[in-house]
Amino acid sequence: MKAAIIGGTGYGAIELIRLINQHPYLEVGSVVSNSQAGNNFSESYPHLTQIIEQPLETFDVEAIAKNNDVVFLATPSGVSSNLVPQLMETGMKCIDLSGDFRLRSLEQYEAWYKRTPTDYEYIKQAVYGLSEIYPETIKTASLIANPGCYPTAATLGLIPILKTAIADMESIIIDAKSGVSGAGRGLSLISHYAEINENLKAYKLGAHQHIPEIEQVLSDESGNPTTVTFTTHLVPMTRGIMCTIYLKLTETISTKEIVNLYNEFYKDKPFVRVRPEGTIPATKEVLGSNYCDIGLHVDERTNRVTIISVIDNLVKGAAGQAIQNANIMFGWDERSGLNLLPMYP
Ligand SMILES: NC(=O)C1=CN([C@@H]2O[C@H](COP(=O)(O)OP(=O)(O)OC[C@H]3O[C@@H](n4cnc5c(N)ncnc54)[C@H](OP(=O)(O)O)[C@@H]3O)[C@@H](O)[C@H]2O)C=CC1
Ligand SMILES: CC(=O)N[C@@H](CCC(=O)OP(=O)(O)O)C(=O)O
């Protein structure tokens, strides 16, 4: 099956190509670029010389529909919302990595993304692609809103405990850190070498576009309107996200019991690894892989639990989860093309 990739020279696209290139049922089809159409792909990414040698194409809906079976959009928010309706009209299935189809409320989208939302018709059709939690709806979807990188790590870390009666729902704090590839390939002051090297920055306090996305998922999964305090930080590394999550417990429970609870919740989910009591995951332990690793610790003095959830932002946080969703949509083993050992060191 051929996969078209839009936003061809960005980091999400290049990661999709890496994964599709070794997928048993998918192959790289059209690679579409707004800025580099006509150039050879390996001019943008010389590390793929003699591996992906094909011209970057302009966005031509008919050609994409004729030559491909599925489309991955690795385009920014505000761009995907223009392209997806055109692609869907041809009957193609779309998996969108941007935030354009994730929020059910148009008002929330406008308020947090500061942009005009897409047509509600498409929001209604979009299925939120958190693979471990919504496999049944993903199976029948025509449009997947692939989750944001921070929301993937945060919600996978929180959902099992929110399903119990032991979580104080008003006490959730998510302290999140990302490597700079999370900001994409485009140049910006925040990720400029001299600005981020040997530096640690908090950003978008109380204003991050992932706040309503996290709250939407947690509200759905807990059955109660849920708010969170969510703070993002940029750290001087290339890949990786760590969410350190704190919440108060309403009952006494040991670390061992909570680890058991998470193990039970994720027992059939190959990409979530719950760490044994006493071991705490680090970003490097999931680097280049589709794993989300979760570590847990109950502080019996304060009756708070600390949850550490780590992913590679470009894999489980973007392209890897998009492939996992394609696997579920097309009825393949969800691990197809994703049997990647983390790269260490
Ligand atoms: N980086 C990450 O860790 C994650 C990213 N995402 C989301 O995935 C999407 C892609 O992100 P990422 O690859 O990192 O970003 P990049 O900035 O690296 O790439 C986005 C690409 O989209 C294309 N593009 C940019 N502006 C326009 C435009 N106006 N019209 C058409 N195409 C345009 C460009 O490629 P070209 O000129 O070749 O078309 C650009 O390289 C974004 O929506 C992002 O929010 C989601 C989760 C994690
Ligand atoms: C490090 C960094 O800058 N990360 C980005 C994540 C962007 C992203 O992937 O978000 P959407 O897909 O929701 O647009 C940020 O914090 O905005």
From TrEMBL:
Keywords: Amino-acid biosynthesis, Arginine biosynthesis, Cytoplasm, NADP, Oxidoreductase. Pfam families: Semialdhyde_dh (PF01118), Semialdhyde_dhC_1 (PF22698). GO terms for biological process: L-arginine biosynthetic process. It catalyses: N-acetyl-L-glutamate 5-semialdehyde + phosphate + NADP(+) = N-acetyl-L-glutamyl 5-phosphate + NADPH + H(+). Pathway: Amino-acid biosynthesis; L-arginine biosynthesis; N(2)-acetyl-L-ornithine from L-glutamate: step 3/4. CDD domains: AGPR_1_C, AGPR_1_N. Residues 2-141 form the Semialdehyde dehydrogenase NAD-binding domain. Its EC number is 1.2.1.38. GO terms for cellular component: cytoplasm. Catalyzes the NADPH-dependent reduction of N-acetyl-5-glutamyl phosphate to yield N-acetyl-L-glutamate 5-semialdehyde. HAMAP family: ArgC_type1 (MF_00150). NCBIfam families: argC (TIGR01850). This is N-acetyl-gamma-glutamyl-phosphate reductase. It comes from Neobacillus mesonae. The lineage of its organism: Bacteria, Bacillati, Bacillota, Bacilli, Bacillales.
